[in-house]
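U., I forgot to send this yesterday:
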Amino acid sequence: VHLVESGGGMVEWGGSLRLSCAASGFMFSNHNMSWVRQAPGKGPEWVSTINTAGDTTYYADAVKGRFTVSRDNAKNTLSLQMNSVRPEDTARYFCQTADSDTNYWGQGTQVTVSV
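Result:
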């Protein structure tokens, strides 16, 4: 399993950013996919999950209405559209999936929201 996140960077408060995750080494279309973030000095925080077909999504309350998760099973790609970002969204963002006994994470991409 190989997950590579991209698209992070610095963005102004209220701005937008789109993160991507390129997946390989497993049957992407058969796995639910998630975004998880970790802010400096804090533990991991679940952000969003999308089902295999891409027609059911879940969001943490902190991002609901601002972030949108999507996937392209033909391209083995997961995305996270981040709108109206806030300073508290500053974190390293990881895409994540799992099989029966193992969680898989990418290296993450850093998002920094400037005030």
